[in-house]
Structures are given as C-alpha cells and as structure tokens.
Amino acid sequence: MNIILFEEYELGRNLSRRDERTIHLIKVLHKKAGDTFEAGIIGGMKGTGKIEKINFDGSIFVSLQVSEPPGKRLPIRILAAFVRPIQIRRLLRDLSNIGVSAIDFAGTDLGEKSYRDTKLFSDGGAHTAVIEGAIQARDTLIPSITIHDSLDKWLSDRPWETTGDKRIPFLLALDNIRPEGSFFHLGPTSRPAVLAVGPERGWSDRERNLFEQAGFLRLSMGSRALRTETACVAAAALALEKIEEYI
C-alpha cells in the first residue's frame, strides 16, 4: 500500500487485526506504536497517520493529521460494456489508478447479458477495487461509478452533462470494425473526454447509429480486437496525452 486510506466513519475506531491495513502496517511495514505512515481520508485530505496503540487483541488505534488537498482527477469519463466480473474488478482498479473521474457501465447489444448480474456493485467489491487503484496512485479521490441497463439509457441520461464542467466534452466511441478515423490522429484539446468502449465483439450497427445521433465520433485504436479492460486503459492514456492541461 502506497498510502493507507480511511473512510470518514472509521476515524476514532480501532482497526481489527484482520483488517488488511493493520496487516500491512504491522506485518509488512513492521510499524510499532508511535510510528507514522502516509495516510488519507477517502474523498478528502491526505497527510500522516500515527499508530497510537497496539491492543492486546492485535487491533490498532491510529490518529490522522491531514491537511494536504488531493490532486485533481482527470477530466475523462469512460463508459465500458459489461464484461466478466474479474475483468470489471481489474478495469475499475486500473482506471482509478490512472485517475479518471467517472466510470459508467452499460448493457450492449453484443455483450453477454449474464455479466450484468454481477454482485460487485452491491457487495462492495467495486468500491474496494477503485480504492485499491487510488492507494497505488497515492490518491484519496476515487472515480464515481454508475450503472445503466443499456447504451440507449446511457446516451439518453448523458451523465457527462451533470458534472458541473461547463466545457463541451469531445465524445468518442472506440470502434475497430467500422471506424470513421483514428484516435491517434486527433490533435490536442482543452476539452474533457467522454470515451465509450464496447464488448470484445464490438458495437452493433444499431448502436453505431445511436452514437452518430448523439454526436459521438467513432474512432479506432488500430485493427486489433482488444480486451475491454485493455481498451479502456489504452483509451484513457491516449486521451490524457491529448488533453492540453496535462501534456
């Protein structure tokens, strides 16, 4: 763990000896009572934690001194088709690690329908995955996650218009089968990015028409069919390179 993160409600409570943060501090970092470590509050400030006490039952009590504001999340929103739960977990962790602001999931015409039944979004697994990505990046901010039954619903909801960012985003659907051009040829921009990544079987012609009606460009990242989670990370990296405030 590059930073130990705490939910606001956990402050002032003991951490169980089985908590992975306790294990990391005591067993991996070999911290003792009185030692400090890098810490932060999820969604808030970061700074220093201190082990105030190691209890007889192996639990620990820590205090935090946090005054450093978190860094900015990237102005990148990614829509991903539902994939296998293990892929969703990796995707969430890696996109959180990169620093995207929002991750949306939607059912697609050619995606496997059973993947939408995953419990990750109800049992805390998705939340844990984005925290893991933030920890790796020494960040306290995590991306928002939203679920949409279909691409139609996502395009109708237009969640990128509810962020408060007044800049008009560039809207891009990755399409390696019938693209209108190449992502690599886009020039620098000062606008936020909304990127849509489909299932490994790609978009249906019906969905391509929906994207066109919604103002999306359909661009490729080459002719190879990538795993959805790989395509999401690659697209985020390309978008980051093109957004001028981060070049």
**From the helix content, strand content and strand pairing, which structural class follows?**
alpha/beta
The helix/strand series, from N terminus to C terminus, equals EEHEEEEHEHEHEEEHEH
Q: What count of helical segments does DSSP give?
A: 6
Low-confidence stretches: none
N-to-C span: 28 Å
Cα shape = elongated
Strand percentage lies at 25-35%
- Give the biggest sheet: 7 strands, parallel
Helix residue percentage: 25-40%
Task: Describe this structure as you would to a colleague.
The protein has about 250 residues and is an alpha/beta fold. The protein is about 25% helix and about 25% strand. The strands form two sheets. Strands 8-7-6-11-9-12-10 form a seven-stranded parallel β-sheet. The protein has a five-stranded mixed β-sheet with strand order 1-3-4-5-2, covered by helices on one side. Helix 2 packs parallel to helix 3 (about 125-135) and helix 2 (about 85-100) runs parallel beside helix 6. The protein is elongated. The mean pLDDT is about 95.
Structure in a nutshell:
It is built from 6 helices and 12 strands.
